[in-house]
């Protein structure tokens, strides 16, 4: 699947730029030049954050995600107050795009527990309007290579001694970007106010709760197999991509002139950092990228493809029957080694193009396991062949 994403990254076939209502992204990037231009501050200056949010709002962005840690107060208390005051009035009396703020978490999460310790924010004391949402940006890296491949769509968190449910950034975004499904927006957004009195027995509570939709089916954020938690990357970093425009943050915050909002209008805006000292650069199947672009890929992945899933059961069994017949024919007519190559070539020739085509629709046709089965079959056949060979006794009484 990693290889399939490498082949498909940035391709027009994975983009909806030509559709009637395309989902495109603008990355307002606090890059190294912006970071140095701001004086290399320990915290991202709150006045700069305020300018970036205002610019996205006034340019009529479709959705704004602020992927910056707001847990601690900044160096200027007045800037903190101005940012908080703006957020408390955000979207009141004037139409502004929905704004998603991200929670941060304490490091050192022990073991495989289902909940995390949320770092309180200096903004927690303020009440925000319904156009501002809190979310979590947590993803799972594979242990053996550190590559981020999976997401957490729902996470339990312990905040100030109380257990809360925090939806993922892409889950909130998918609900907000869906076509007028107000009930789903409210349902997903209000998960972060579902509270339990304390964090005792958090693991048992996390395993016991199952979310379902109105039809009784498991919701998209209920626990699933790892395939369903897989993130499909289609937007690369530092490579041409039809769905992404990157704008250095300094061009907006330090410009002496009024800027055009053409690069923002009706686009999903992600405000984040790529400068080296941010330590927010991560390994992905299509190369390194900042956390803000992982969020962009996750939003597109969940909105366009949903959870990755295998083909329908009928198609899956037809595929298995086809592979069984191919393997049976090859091994009945050819020697073991040649049969492996012939059957493998047919499997690759048939399933790789099918996988490539349906990958765009979030369907994964797995061709690795059938190939592995061919190799195992050959090994077993060779072992049986050796065991069936006639044995002779040499002059020293040894079996040959």
Map the helices and strands.
Blueprint (H helix, E strand, L loop, with lengths): L1 H7 L16 E6 L1 H6 L8 H13 L4 E4 L10 H12 L10 E4 L12 E3 L14 E4 L3 E3 L6 E4 L2 E6 L2 E6 L1 H9 L4 H8 L5 E2 L5 H7 L35 E5 H5 L14 E6 L7 E2 L6 E2 H15 L7 H21 L2 H23 L9 H20 L13
Parallel strand pairs: 1-11, 1-12, 2-3, 2-12, 3-5, 4-8
Antiparallel strand pairs: 6-7, 8-9, 9-10, 13-14
What does this molecule look like?
This protein is α/β, with parallel strands linked by helices and 400 residues long. It folds into two domains: 2-305, no CATH class; 313-387. The protein has twelve helices and 14 strands. The chain has helices at 2-8, 32-37, 46-58, 77-88, 169-177, 182-189, 202-208, 249-253, 291-305, 313-333, 336-358, 368-387; strands at 25-30, 63-66, 99-102, 115-117, 132-135, 139-141, 148-151, 154-159, 162-167, 195-196, 244-248, 268-273, 281-282, 289-290. Strands 5-3-2-12-1-11 form a six-stranded parallel beta sheet, sandwiched between helices. A hairpin with a 2-residue loop joins strand 8 and strand 9 (162-167). The longest helix has 23 residues, at 336-358. It is elongated. Mean pLDDT is 77; it is low at 211-224.
Proportion in helices: 25-40%
Taking Cα atoms only, what radius of gyration do you get, to the nearest Å? 26 Å
Instruction: Give the domain tally.
Output: 2
Mean pLDDT: 77
Molecular shape:
elongated
Largest sheet: 6 strands, parallel
Alpha-carbon distance between the termini? 46 Å
Number of strands: 14
Instruction: Give the SSE order as H and E letters.
Output: HEHHEHEEEEEEEHHEHEHEEEHHHH
Question: Unreliable runs, pLDDT <50, ≥5 residues?
Answer: 211-224
Number of helices: 12
- Structural classification: alpha/beta
Q: Taking strands numbered 1, 2, ... along the chain, how are they ordered across the largest sheet?
A: 5-3-2-12-1-11
Q: In what range is the share of β-strand residues?
A: 5-15%
């Amino acid at each position: 699947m990693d290889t399939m994403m490498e082949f498909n990254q940035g391709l027009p076939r994975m983009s909806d730029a030509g559709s009637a209502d395309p989902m495109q992204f603008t990355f307002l990037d606090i890059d190294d030049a912006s970071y140095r231009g701001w004086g290399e501050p320990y915290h991202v200056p709150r006045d700069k954050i305020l300018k970036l949010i205002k610019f996205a709002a006034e340019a009529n962005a479709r959705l704004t995600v602020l992927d910056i840690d707001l847990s601690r107060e900044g160096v200027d208390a007045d800037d903190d107050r101005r940012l908080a005051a703006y957020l408390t009035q955000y979207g009141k009396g004037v139409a502004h795009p929905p704004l998603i703020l991200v929670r941060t978490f304490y490091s050192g999460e022990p073991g495989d527990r289902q909940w995390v310790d949320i770092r309180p924010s200096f903004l927690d004391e303020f009440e925000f309007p319904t156009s501002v949402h809190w979310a979590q940006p947590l993803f799972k890296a594979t242990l053996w290579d550190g590559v981020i491949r999976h997401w957490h769509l729902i996470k339990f968190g312990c905040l100030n001694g109380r257990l809360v449910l925090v939806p993922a950034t892409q889950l909130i975004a998918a609900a907000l970007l869906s076509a007028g499904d107000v009930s789903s927006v409210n349902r997903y957004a209000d998960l972060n106010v579902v509270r339990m009195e304390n964090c005792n027995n958090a693991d048992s509570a996390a395993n016991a709760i199952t979310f379902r939709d109105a039809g009784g089916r498991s919701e998209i954020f209920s626990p699933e197999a790892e395939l369903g938690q897989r993130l499909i990357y289609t937007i690369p970093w530092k490579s041409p991509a039809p769905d992404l425009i990157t704008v250095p943050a300094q061009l907006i915050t330090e410009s002496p002139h009024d800027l055009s909002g053409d690069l923002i209008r009706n686009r999903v805006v992600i405000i984040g950092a790529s400068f080296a000292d941010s330590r927010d650069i991560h390994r992905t199947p299509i190369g390194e990228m900042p956390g803000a672009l992982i969020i962009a890929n996750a939003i597109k992945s969940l909105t366009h493809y949903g959870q990755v899933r295998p083909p329908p059961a009928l198609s899956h069994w037809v595929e298995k029957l086809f592979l069984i017949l191919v393997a049976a024919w090859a091994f009945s007519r050819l020697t073991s080694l040649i049969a492996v190559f012939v059957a493998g070539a047919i499997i690759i020739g048939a399933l790789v193009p099918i996988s490539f085509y349906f990958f765009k629709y979030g369907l994964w046709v797995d061709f690795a396991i059938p190939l592995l089965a061919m190799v195992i079959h050959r090994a077993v056949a060779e072992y049986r062949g050796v065991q069936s060979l006639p044995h002779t006794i040499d002059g020293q009484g040894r079996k040959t």
